[in-house]
Amino acid sequence: MAHRGRPREFDRDAAVNAAMHLFWEQGYELTSVSQLKAAIGDGISATSFYAAFESKEALYKEALERYMVIYSDLTRSLHDTAIPPREAVFLALQRSAKMQTGSGHPKGCMVVTGIVGANAADSGAAYQLLRAIRNRTRLGFRSCVERGIKSGELRETTDPVALSVAIDCFFQGLSGLARDRVPATVIEKAVSAALGIWDSAVDPKIPERQ
Q1: 52-97 pLDDT per residue, tens
Q2: H-helix or E-strand containing 87?
Q3: Quick one: fold of 73-200?
């Protein structure tokens, strides 16, 4: 009687990184298990794939968590009250733009590309995690706006929800610009220009920035 050989072993850490880059490039819906197996390599079988990762969604969640561990510092300034609010917003936009146009990984943002083809009503764990990450960033922008109002830098009549969503719209759009290969130098200038959204709400009693 023939005996089955042991499943081929593979480097799990490298496998998650490979999956992260593939999901980042194509989004969740457009990435197939066959493509994931090919990206992981080492001749991994379907049986070994599901034994290791349980499902495509579970692997996506793990890959997204890996992405956040690596890149969460990009928007950390939004939640750092020691940084002046306008500067915190600028740093988050600037650092994100630099990463998304950089080399060594897919262009754009995995959190944004992950929603390509997604159903807004989907309640799966992967989409819940994506929404939670996007909401945290949006709340970070709102926190900065509210701090700006409280400090007197922004007019007290400023709508914190509207202004933070306007900034978040630009932030979300960075991914598309990066994937369209808009030059990094152009996007860098656009980040500075986008702060005009913030400056339009500055209280005129505050001295102009040099």
Answers
A1: 899 999 999 999 999 999 998 999 999 999 999 999 999 999 999 9
A2: helix 85-100
A3: Tetracycline Repressor; domain 2 (1.10.357)
